[in-house]
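Why show two proteins at once? Because comparison is the fastest way to build intuition. When a single record is shown, students tend to memorize it. When two are placed side by side, the eye starts asking what differs. So, the first record is below.
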Amino acid sequence: MDVKTNEDSGRVTTTVSIELSNNTNQKKTKDKDDNADDRPNWSNGLEFLMSCISMSVGLGNIWRFPFTAYENGGGAFLIPYLIVLFLIGKPMYYLEMIMGQFTSKGSVKAWSICPSFLGVGYGQAFGTLSIITYYSSLIALTLYYMIVSCQAILPWTYCRDEWENCVDSMPKEDTLQFPNDTSNKLTSSSELYFIEIVSKEKDQIDDGLGSPDLYLTLTLFASWIVIFLVIRNGVKSSGKAAYFLALFPYVVLIALLIRAVTLEGAVDGILFFLEPDWGQLANLKVWKEAVVQCFFSLAVGIGPIIMFSSYNRFDHPIYRDAMIVTSLDTLTSMLAGITIFGILGNLAHNLKVSDIKEVVQSGTALAFISYPDAIAKFQAVPQFFAVLFFFMLFVLGVGSIVALQSTIVTIICDQFKSTKYWVVALICSIGGFLLGLVYVTPGGQWILNLVDFYGGTYVVFALAILEIVGIIWIYGLQNFCDDVEFMTNRKVSIYWRLCWSFLTPVMMIVIFVYSMVTIEPLTYKKIEYPEAANIAGWVIFAIGIAQFPLWGWWYIKTHYKDSFMNTLRTSLRSSEEWGPKNPETRAKWIAYKEALALERGKKLSSNKFGFFKQKVYNISVGKN
């Protein structure tokens, strides 16, 4: 065995030659064989990039980012968000891409890197399920609005007789726009339409959630049919759809941006969004919200990134893709923020409100109130733009939920390899539809806020900390960087090393501890939840977090040997499953690691790499 390692201009070049017996196949390994067990690959690298864009650039940018910025002082939120992006978002995104591509495994099986942390993968899957349940209801809302937009007069543009203190979203030239009595707070017709007609929202959920709305149930069902059709054949079908899912929304978003900035009063809203309040930088709550938004937008800490990259060829240039996606995601959030705050500025102008904060209540409704309100002011064929806009939201939502749903399906298929992918996809889609019914009830928005807070925020946040701790602090920064350099043929810079080893985990731990210590009772529209709802929320959080110790205990129990401490130490080391799946690539990797260890004056521990050494020996003598 001959190993040569060279470092030149930030590049790492590794040459490994292994002498095999005459009966061993000597031909060069093809890229398409880099994944064992007939695991499919993307048809080309562009499909992977488009899929990552459609996953990360979604409703989180159009819906969640503007109202998160809105709730945290507008422009004051941008500085923490950008800092968090570079110190937490990008490092975590790149780390997860590496995990998936290096092992060709989903977000659970990839924990062969540190087997006792297996529960992190299952806990993240639970968080993903929580997000899927309510995310599909948002997609159903976009489909509902798209359908009602086909009417001669957009239904949210005018007030109904029973609505008090209502002002039409579409100004009328021949009638007075504002009620004579303006002593009470005015409400736009687009907001009342969403609350009174679409969601039939309840003021309180003490007496129950109510029954699912028929029309929203039908659109929810139709949404899940589309989702199933996209994911039924795995990356073979979702990869083809990714081109449209990733690119089409930008056409509509740019058109809406141009319209928004030309509205009267838009400048005030945009300035509110961009003007920073430096005092907010000392508020850790704002930093916590920046981390949560970064995770939600990039889909970090919930599994899709690992899952998508696991279908890559081993030599795919993921560094480039990680930088493109994270940068484009931020740019899209900024464009969406400018667009919606321009609309809010115009809305404040129409309602004769001086403070932008008083214009509309934040939350899910923001995307279904402020955007429709802007479309109502389009002078030329607003119906066309409405259909186009809500179709864009539908496409964005489908692009993201396809990644989330595929993560769950991949986890199941990795565990039960004989099960057909489309069967698992169908069962999961049916389950997603049934769980989504709770969100199309009159109390659905309350439950959405509750599940997002406990299941989609704190569970994901806590497990992301354990994720980077398990990979970098336990498996080891140098071990991980060696693996990265072997796969990417690129030296890991000091930026990544510093972020992974210290800045990212420490910042996340400090912000998480602070947010847990200062946590306040959850409210929706400034109304507190019933005690039973809060208990249910903490149960959701407990179930997600409990996956970590329970699966860790299960692994130790099922792999018990000699003593508890020995078993525990073994469970904190990478197992024989960790590493490239292709046998020849794996052999080269083992030889590469041995050469590095010898070069550093170390001797590989036999109990850590004994299996690998035996595998190399088996290959060299022609054994399987």
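Second record. Ask yourself what differs from the first in the token line.
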Amino acid sequence: MDALDGVPRSVLGYPVKTRTQIVATFLVPVIFELMLYIVLTTADILITVEHFRNGAPTWAWFTLTLIWLPAVVCFCSIVSTPERWPERIGFDERTGRFLFNQVAILVFFPLAALYRFSRRIFWSVEALFHDKGSYGRAQAVAKITETSPCELYHFLQAFLQAAPQMMLQLYILLRDGTFRNYDTVTVQVISVVCSFLTMATIITGYQRFESQKIVGRCYPWSTAEQATQRRKQLLRSTSTAVSALATPSIAPEADPIVPNIMRNFYSRYGSEGERESTANERVAVPAAEQSPRKTLNVGAFNFDRQQSKAHQDPYVNFTDDDKLQEFSGPPDTVDRGGSKARPSGRSVSFKLRDTVEELQAMDHYLRSTEDVRGYATDDSDDEYLKPDGFDAVPKRPAPPTPEAAAGMFHRVSVFRHMLLFNAEAFIKEKVPRLPEGMFEHANPREGSRKAQGTDDQTDGDAISLPSRRQTIVGLEQDDMVGKAVLFLGWVMFLLMRMLALSTFYVFFPLYFWMLVANHYLLMIACIVYEVRLHEKLERYFFYLFLAYMYVFSLLEFKIRFVHVRWWYVGYIALVLAENVASLVLWYNLGAFESWWFYFLHHTIVASGSLSVLCFLFYYAFLRPKDKVLFVNED
């Protein structure tokens, strides 16, 4: 398995080197995320200090709570997962060490996040110094892609810290009298910008996660055992289209579909190389030790009519008795007076290596066929002419008609079973609530059919009919250009969404909560309808959090969209309608005099238009290709 399996191998359709893959996929994004994390965390801490200095402890405590909230939720999620605890039941040294590590990460979560980013940067640089396919490169890439609980904290930070922090600071900035302390305003603007970028980074990375997960991608915060088991299961149960659709070998020994006649021919006469090696060995081995072998002598003169007519057989005047007397000695020892004339392809010629037993068998066969008369003696195109008395009643009765073999209708039976199997599979897939036991075919003759099917598989004359295989259709990861365009589109989308909601809350707070509540309930209804109530019960609590995420953006996470286009087109249309309605309300009915709100009005319209253009360009030209895996049959 390739160490960079799943990493995009091309940019805009052009293949790139492995070092470019590492730089574009690992090194540059990790450095960017590290810089964002440092600036965002520092800005939020400075905002907290400024609020305490300005006499606003309420805003300070809100800001500080939002900083700690992702770390607390991550700690609770890890501790409540049984798979992460040591296997031994009870409080021992391993359990105490595990709990101590998690508490230390909770308390010093900024240092843990910095260690995670620094570790990935180090191994990304280390991978650049190793050649492709080397052990050092594979080990470095494995270190880069290893799972860690810090990835869960980084994911939660986008929606539990960046999104509410952005709404809070924008509301504070839009209130009256906010612009008096310019130091606080500067830090707040930096925090808002970094929050936009952090959310856009996470949304871009997890945009179509479930479609990528079914074809190989793992959760970056899962345990090492879970990730390894997931990869092994995927390799064991599926195969790629290249390996599944590869052309099978047509060698008689490898392909059971080749008729037995060809296999017998190769085993009797051998291949061209075997015949040459046998001829060379016959030169070195004495004639007395060589075993007689039947040889088929075919040359170019056999297919040239003029040459075959002009060529005379040196043995044409010999009778069978003369030949038996002539070749009564050992084979290949009789000299024909130096005659080197080659036999024609139309007449029967006997070489010196023909054995006496073969000549006697031919003589017996010719003497036993007394009914055939009138052999051809001229050079006509027909080898045999119609004998006299051809329409006469034969002296001997015709042999009995051979009985039909047991497997002569094998092809028809295989085709019939294939049609029945495809029809049953189609009905099971398309028709809901079938009667119980409708397609159960168990009967006393089932064992005999299985045995017959086993024999049919080894039959060399069986035909290979195409069968329908179950496939898994997923999605490849985005390349560098696709991620850049998608990232820009989500930045513009979030800018439009956050500014529209913040300004609407300033003028109409009651309508704001009504709009958000209705949007939240609608998202819950869409999620429940999408999963069709077939998911586990514990996931329903996560769906409440997922609906909260859908207030700001849309990403395929924890549930796979059946109708992807309807989801994205409907969601973007709904958000645009909400933003336009709120914009029209506060712009026409709100009381404001500052030029700042006019600037926000134009910014909302421009960012919304740019986001739609980016999404359309990405969907039309840069979206990743589908990845198809075939399910291996047991």
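One difference worth noting in the second protein: Residues 214-246+467-633 form one domain.
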